Amino acid sequence: MDAAEFRRRGKEMVDYVADYLENIEKRLVYPDVEPGYLRSLIPTEAPLEPESYEDVIKDVERVIMPGITHWHSPYFFAYFSAASSYPAMLADMLCGALGCIGFSWTVCVLAASPACTELETVMLDWLGKMLQLPECFIAGTHGSGGGVIQGTASEATLMSLLAARCKAIRRVQATNSNYSESDVLGKLVAYTSEQAHSSVERAALIGGVMMKQVPADNSYAVRVDMLKKMMEEDKAAGLIPFYFCATLGTTPSCAFDRIVELGPLCNEENIWMHIDAAYAGSAFICPEFRPLLNGVEFADSFNFNPHKWLLVNFDCSAMWVKKRTDIIGAFKMEPLYLKHENQESGRSITFTHTHWQIPLGRRFRSLKLWFVFRLYGLQGLQAHIRKQVALAKVFESLVRADKRFEICAEVIMGLVCFRLKGSNELNQNLLKRITDSREIHLVPCQLSGRFVLRFAICARTTESSHIQQAWRHITQLTFELLQEPSH
Amino acid sequence: MDAAEFRRRGKEMVDYVADYLENIEKRLVYPDVEPGYLRSLIPTEAPLEPESYEDVIKDVERVIMPGITHWHSPYFFAYFSAASSYPAMLADMLCGALGCIGFSWTVCVLAASPACTELETVMLDWLGKMLQLPECFIAGTHGSGGGVIQGTASEATLMSLLAARCKAIRRVQATNSNYSESDVLGKLVAYTSEQAHSSVERAALIGGVMMKQVPADNSYAVRVDMLKKMMEEDKAAGLIPFYFCATLGTTPSCAFDRIVELGPLCNEENIWMHIDAAYAGSAFICPEFRPLLNGVEFADSFNFNPHKWLLVNFDCSAMWVKKRTDIIGAFKMEPLYLKHENQESGRSITFTHTHWQIPLGRRFRSLKLWFVFRLYGLQGLQAHIRKQVALAKVFESLVRADKRFEICAEVIMGLVCFRLKGSNELNQNLLKRITDSREIHLVPCQLSGRFVLRFAICARTTESSHIQQAWRHITQLTFELLQEPSH
């Protein structure tokens, strides 16, 4: 395919994409295929000779679409939102064409595209200011902190845990010079909420350290007393607490750990506090939600996913650290070709992102942020958040008005946790009917041992009419379910 | 921006991308900016209100392009190639529009788009067959292995090391029940070549295990005797060898560790052998290069980057494991919402990629493979590899014909290591002149203590005329350098 054909096919693809998104709600949101369905639809080997573009593009509808869950359908209410917007897609096209791999790999420190790393640093400053992060997290203030784009919150959590691990090992060895690294590793304890995302526990597994789950209160949030009690017991048993991952907006119910009270304890005890606000973080650009981030000043690192709720297509997870040297220090290795004499100084933050993440190479993801920030403006982004929170309130009201149902957790952002009053089995049956109908898509969670349905406002194009329609659908299925003799 | 405006702007962007790539060789390949250049070109905060699209797109040339190293210029000869092709870009546009996040997160096992995971499994089978991988790596054979797309080779190496670590800990604890996990961790030793990529050592740092560098022979390859000697000394000292990362196509000189002799040793000694063929792996689709992969049958895992040399835009790193259970086992944690009863069986490989990688979410990257394989065909891809190897031979001949220069390592693939006969300083000065001229871009390496210039055939559009022009440029700068009084 040459440039001329790309011009033609590219424009056709733009129309295909626009058609898909304009008409997405006509498709059933949830696929109806059997595991392994795809293998039988295509050959077992790659073709020897090129096929025609027409044949390939025809197969998108034949092979791919039947197995797609349409995340951007206004009837998709599962998990949390996955961001999508036209400006971000345009930026991604440009990113693909530039195809520069952002890293600094050699003594020629600028080699791998300075624009890529520099725009990222400045965009994380823009975003940090939108969130009113304390100055210590903003690179442009010539402070000691700054931001970086990770692929996912999982990677941000892992990086923070590794940085904390390294710092703790050094601190312990400084006063106990006869401890080996593995002696210390065997004593380190990390903590997170029992409500935290599985990727937090996973980070501890990767890092080879023990992680304990802190019980949450009855609003599903971690409070300081419980963490303090666990830490004291562990210290008495000879263990070394070193890391706490707080969650702002938990996956099951969007609960907020009380970082205002947890932060001072962590600071006193030399515990690295990381804040995972993967979903809810986007909302902190609105002044009315910003108080939920109070206490971030105690954190060593903070992360949220613009690719969830800030109209920036996956993947783009924004992470800030208070001290760049902490995270760079997690990778003690310094081969010549990764070394730059000024790498820990303010100016050369532009060269060091290689040390801030697991992969060495990185795409030019900050272009998406730049396009979205400028083409929506802060007010446009705030309007998007507010609209989705308001839609969640609409759904909450509908549920509350129906005495057969109950709300299971406070509705603070775009997530409503609800259930039929009755057994877990009853609610499992309701969800099964919803899933089988394929018209809307929800996923469940467990709260206090109860099977709960999660209704998350996800698609950018979801309107009140879709919420009303979803609720009619749910109540119709409920009616049918309750008619059955077994109930 | 609505769909109608996206149709218009998207088509403009397609033309911008085609214009950029058609005219890329008119741009100086290397940027001329000072560190921090970008911050002063744009505001310090995001705009409150939306800006016009015209303003944003104008800034691409004003702000971004001056700081770009043009990786796809036919005058870019640095690092290794970063793949780029029009079919891959079209597939990425589709990927962005679908915006599905491939993972299985709940009891509804199909939820996150079955097409995403299933196409990936089948494409890795197609690719594995192109490479003539042993059947045990192919998922569709109902064997115990299969493939997964990682973001980068760094992540593949890390995953393999974590899997090996977990297996080793279990094995040691099975016979030494009084060993704690950290006791074992403190004794584990991993090995890799002194020529291996820094990401291998980094994987060991993350995993908290010791890694030792094995000296290479005078062709920069690791031989079995040296590894065996080191392992025996370590075992005698009470350590536990558990992992060896072989490189096929090292970063400095594209050397090939002798896996045919290393593999049997690793198998005998219960050492996990991972093969990192990040760059060279693509060439194994050509029968004449496939012998370099002989010995892969001894490996537990194998990885290479289609995003380097197989015309698939970054990121797309292909990884295969011989036993799925090994890599899944590295994450012992099994919360209900990630569990599926058949997850280790052949059929449900489609649900388990979440356990094969660091992030939970994943883009629909297999679309790029599907488009590229079908629109080039195996023969088209082979032709691309062969052409680039032939171009390297052209450059090698030019160097060999000039008695002032020497070739520093055997030219097997698309990389030529060369230098001026003389001091390291002389060669550093030559490279500085090349870099400062910005007309072509190379990076150096160290081989046997000597400063060496690497000339890698990178861009898809590089032709013999560009090689000739690059050589004229190098010899002109050499002439000027040697004229200077100091020489």
Shape of chain A: globular
Q: What is the CATH superfamily of the largest domain in chain A?
A: Type I PLP-dependent aspartate aminotransferase-like (Major domain)
The SSE string of chain A, one letter per element, is HHHHEHHEHEHEHEEHEHHEEHEEH
- Largest sheet: number of strands, sense, barrel closure of chain A: 7 strands, mixed
Give the number of DSSP strands of chain A.
11
Secondary-structure-derived class of chain A: alpha/beta
Q: Over the alpha carbons, how many angstroms does the gyration radius of chain A reach?
A: 24 Å
* Unreliable residue runs of chain A: 105-110, 333-352
Instruction: Tally the helices of chain A.
Output: 14
Largest interface: A-B, 150 and 149 residues
Going across the biggest sheet of chain A, name each strand in turn: 1-7-6-5-4-2-3
What multimeric state do the chains show?
homodimer
Number of domains of chain A: 2
How far the N terminus sits from the C terminus of chain A, by CA atoms, comes to 61 Å
**Tell me, what is the CATH class of the largest domain in chain A?**
Alpha Beta
Mean pLDDT of chain A: 91
What's the CATH topology label of the largest domain in chain A?
A: Aspartate Aminotransferase, domain 2
What share of the residues of chain A does DSSP label as strand, in percent? Answer: 5-15%
